[in-house]
Amino acid sequence: MSDADRTAPTIPACFESVLLDLSTRFVRVPAHAVDQEIEASQHRICECLGLDISALWQWSVEAPGQFTLSHLYRPLGGPPVPDPMDARMLFPWSLQQVQAGKVVAIASLDETPAAAAQDVRSWQYFELKSVLTIPLSVGGEYPLGAISFGVVRAERLWPEELVNRLQLVAQIFSSALARKYAEQELRESEARLQMAAESAGVLLWSMRLDTGGIAWLTEQSRELFGVAPEEAITFERFLDLVDPEDRDLIRRTVRGGSTSREEWSLEFRVPRADGTARWVTSRGRTRWNAKGTADCLMGLTLDITERKTAEWRLQQALDEVQRLKDSLQEENRFLRKQISGETGHGVIVGESGQIRAVLADADKVAPTDSLVLITGETGTGKELLAERIHELSARGSRAMVKVNCAALPPSLIESELFGREKGAFTGAMTRQSGRFELAHQSTLFLDEIADLPRDLQAKLLRVLQEGEFERLGSTRTLKVDVRVIAATNHDLAAMVQNGSFRADLFYRLNVFPLVMPPLRERRQDIPLLVWHFLRHYCEKMGKAIDVVPPQTMHWLCNYDWPGNVRELRNLIERAVILSDGRHLQIAAPETIVTVPAAPATLADAERVHILSVLDRTRWRISGAQGAADQLGMKPTTLHSRMKKLGIRRPDC
């Protein structure tokens, strides 16, 4: 048939409009609507160009060489189409051309090459007179399949201009199909990943660094953080969902992780609507693109609330075991007879008139059960004097029980003095006897009595007057027979005047006052004390020092000793360690460190104590073992006290 007898190869004006519309529509079409749009487009193209058939074939992944007919427009009908179709059997020549990326344009079956004989028989079976087959590919890669256009009513030409435009249609269809399959694969991959994550109890997420948004969260992650399925999450929105105290840690970790190729991890809390919080741990890694730029953070999150709860309970149990162990050791210590000379100063050494007068008064009051109040500067030997009174009393066969009121946290003083019942407060796992019970028929030495909280002073007064009290958490009254000796380095009379110490308790304690003189007021006792301590430490360290240079003794006797006998004892111990040979060698006076004077007011003392606890906790106020916890108060109360006392965190 001549070219004149074939359909004119003109391109209708409507086709340009169709082509422009397809280019626009397929950019916006969602993946789930791609197939419907392709079939609608085949219909429009065939109607516009006067074609009788449009078939889109795709490679079978399971069987290479086979085609699957996925999209067909054939309004005139025709023979059945095998599905799948073995292209190697039906269209071997066309298959080679398509695989090579070539277009097959057949205007007449009579004009085909000899190698296409089988292809011609197949076209005749489908009643085709002219055929155009265009490979479907993305980026010039191996074809995804092919799209065919044909006519059954008359032969027609396939001019280059028309072929070029239909190739553009093939590219549009190829891109749409590739995007559809990529999104399907992504959804399937996410579904598989989410299924694996759910079975392992892992929560997955990813965050884009260019937009600062959380690109993807698994359903479990959204449930944990309380995020609706449709809600878009930015990094700042995510921070709003975690505990405020953990936000800075998360910011620093993510900032550091976004510039590193190392994996990072952190633990933080997620508050819940019911007031509880879930503990989670997150591990993440930065994804780097081909240009070497970090573009995404990807990671996983585990809910570790149960583990944290178990750790907390274990720590609570360990703390309770340790506390009970310490309590048992303390109680056992009270039941042993203390060896007076174990620290090297178990006796009061001195021949001065001042110390002789104090010892004489102590010996007079010892046989009685009268209360004794010992005052004096720190380090003067108030505890030794109390031990002497106890040993000379009828109670001397029992161990004297000692309590340092300044060393116990305010929240524990009451239970330590008077005992507690099981469950009296959080952590009270067992019943515990107080120091008054341990000191029954013995002596209780209350050191630093001025530091006893005012709310406990009334309870102590009742015990002193009536000999009875109740354990913390109990209503049963206990009666004890205890002699009390109190000591302090404060002026209790002045504290009574300023209202920080109860007047009635002061008068009850001040039955028989004794004042231990400072060492500077009994300088004649210094040589005796020097030799006493020297012999003790030489024997303990295996040294033979028997000479104290005159100039050394002269300086020792003329030094003011703000730390009193305790300072002297420590100085001699240090000197024995450093001395070689028979002569005692003492550091030059200017190298001796003196202790600052005690705070003048209760506010000063409180400020010093709070600062010491803050330094010890590195200025961490809240949380377990924070400053507030150690001081036995709420963090807000501690903040208030710090503001009132002018305590501010150092800039460094």
Characterization of this structure:
- The structure is a single chain.
- This protein is an alpha+beta fold.
- 43% of the residues lie in helices and 17% in strands.
- It has 23 helices and 19 strands.
- The protein has a six-stranded antiparallel β-sheet, with helices on both faces.
- A hairpin with a 5-residue loop joins strand 10 and strand 11.
- Helix 1 runs antiparallel to helix 2, helix 1 runs parallel beside helix 6 and helix 15 packs across helix 17.
- The longest helix has 41 residues.
- About 2% of the residues have low confidence.
Low-confidence stretches: 336-345
Number of strands: 19
Determine the structural class based on helices, strands and strand pairing: alpha+beta
In percent, how much strand structure appears in the residues?
A: 15-25%
- What is the 3D form? rod-shaped
Distance between the termini: 97 Å
Mean pLDDT: 82
- DSSP helix fraction: 40-55%
Strand arrangement, major sheet: 3-2-1-6-5-4
Distinct helical segment count: 23
Radius of gyration: 47 Å
